[in-house]
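Box S1 | Example of a co-folding query
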Amino acid sequence: MSNTYQYINVSVEDGIGLVELNRPKVLNAINRGMVSEILSAFETFDRNQEVKVILLSGKGRAFAAGADIAEMANDNAIDFELMNQFADWDRIAAVKKPIIGAVQGFALGGGFELALCCDMLFAADDAEFGFPEVSLAVMPGAGGTQRLTKLIGKTRAMEWLMTGDRMSAAEAQRLGIINRVVARELLFEETKKFAGRLAKQPPLSIRLIKESVLKAVDYSLYEGMQYERKNFSLLFASEDQKEGMKAFIEKRKPQYKGK
Ligand code: CAA
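Box S1 (continued) | Returned holo structure for acetoacetyl-coenzyme A
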């Protein structure tokens, strides 16, 4: 895919769709154009059979220091209603392939919300996460109160959201927000290595595991179990399931096609 975007860089390497936020001078502040470009890149990768996994990272010293304050400072409630800008975030959440985030420096406000849209997160040891919206007399609007609460629980989410304090990578890992903390200079390489591992897994399993795990966040256990069962059965309609089990029996490495 050629890079025709203004606010992000995109490329494909070894089955990994790379998306890099590219406004380093303003710490990758997320303006509306950037959100629609991220969505466009994600949806293009989602339909591209060459891409198995998406890796989201930020250029420069921060992952993203939040929504672009300069852009929204003079907005009013009716502008938001008419733009329906958060609809793009709903579509980001509907991407079927796994999204792995690599976070260094700040992941604040909308930047933290974007990180929380990722399925797994690797963070540099200098990463700082937080929702400073309260200090601007607003609050998160792209899922922050919802996703953080579902991840770490009500009482802890209340504290981070109401104080606006920033948490370290170690704290974020302790709270289960991120998967790994790695040295800053190794962040991209380590995240890419992990994404590369997932890229070699049978794609349909990965796809339906993601879908099922996300349902667990919203559904009751009973409904989630029914959903899981349908996806489990669906995999038995794939060529890869036949190949995976046949290869096991024949004691050889399976060759998956994603079909
Ligand atoms: N929007 C617009 N510009 C931003 C920005 C943002 N969110 N964050 C940083 N920048 C810009 C700064 O204005 C500055 O630009 P200039 O060089 O032109 O002055 C540049 O990025 C570098 O930033 P700093 O000089 O401030 O860097 P620092 O290291 O001293 O501080 C920081 C870093 C603590 C992250 C500080 O920049 C900051 O507090 N940023 C704002 C964080 C914030 O409030 N984010 C939430 C936004 S609201 C939101 O996200 C709503 C939502 O839910 C959708």
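Residues 26-27, 29, 65-70, 106, 108-110, 113, 132-133, 136, 140-142, 144 surround acetoacetyl-coenzyme A (CB under 6 Å). The chain has two domains: 8-199, 203-249.
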